[in-house]
Please model this.
Amino acid sequence: MPQVSDHTRIALNELLDLAQLPRERGDMASFSGQDPVLPTRYRIGTAGAAILAATGLAASELWHLKTGRRQTVSVDVPAAAISLRSSRYMKIIGQEAEREFAPLMRFYPAKDGRWVFLHANFPNLRDQALRILGVPDDVDAVAKAISGWDAQAFETAMHDGGACGSFVRTTEEWAAHPHAQAIQSLPAVEIIKIGDAPPRPLPVGDRPLSGVRVLDLTRVIAGPTAARTLAEHGADVLKITRAGLADSGQLDLDTGIGKLSARLDLRESDQHARLRDLIGTCDVFSQSYRPGTLAGRGFSPEALAEQRPGIVYVTLSAWGHEGPWRNRRGYDTIVQAATGMAHASADASGPKHLPVSAIDYVGGNLMAYGAMVALHRRATEGGSWLVRASLATTGRWINDRGIVPREVYQNAPADLPPEAIAPLCTEVDFPGGRIRYLAPIVRMSETPAHWVRPPVPLGFHPAAWPA
Model:
């Protein structure tokens, strides 16, 4: 069995193998600290540090294309662990932080003695769940209604009715599930050539991704994290949302650091055409809608590879592109519940989520890692590329890091001490006043990771690339 200090190196080697990068590249990365960082059986620090180091090494490879030089990369494992809940440390000076979850969003006991989890952070999902349950917007009423359902029947009804809820399975139950078996062979991230195009050199600039244009059509945490990571290495990221879609409040500020933000409604022909214009000069197109959602509007990977040869199309789904659940809704919390992580984390009061959104943030960085590897391949061999990840395969990859024994993690602190967190944060002015947030955790020897744009409210900018 590997020693605790070896786990991060093993995880990094797996990521290098996925991208077909020589393992010797990992010699340029160093780590400090180890799990457990927070009270959880999962090696969240290991997973976070490994994927952050991988993004740094991918950026270093791009820098090598520009300059002939590679960089050393370093990651602190405790800092990587807390970055998996970075929104907790974001603070608008002088304002109260928003609550993380809506009141109805919690675990509930079901009729058959099992547990379920209800996702209700968006009004449409909340309203659909209340309609299915036949109760008003009241926690006690929801709990009473769910207590009359068997857990499996509840999960099926939520999915069939357009809501989002999960049966809390054990790890063994999930392993035997048809969907778990269907995606077992899928890697944590796939990088696939989907079209021919001549090699396209990286834009000139003093950072690995200087001049690289990224369209970010993602929501919630994982997808926006991917584009934020690309921004921290110099990319110009333009986030596109639609007015009227439920937003994520202050969380959108945290995942929006370093980005421009505009609104387009693809149901309007002129705005649909505007997105096509933007795609015509972009390098990376990133989306996190359910499989096929954007294809119906002409924005499938194949369609964009035809319109913009050489594009890197990055896509995230909840459950993967294969298996019976491939079209289901899902979020970090739902995946934890369905796949056994919440059950394995339970205490006497019931199932528990991890203390960080590890699936979301690791998944987002897997997307960014794949995007940078694809940009390197585009520059050296040409082609259009598809980068594909899912929350479910990310959760499996985190689980595969191994388990910390209870006697080791049970006394871990709930957080790093303030004196350890303060040096990891930075403050800037933004349109809403002054804001403090976690700075990038990965350390680069030549091109320090940083964001040049402050967070802004959704739709703050015009739908245009910077000059």
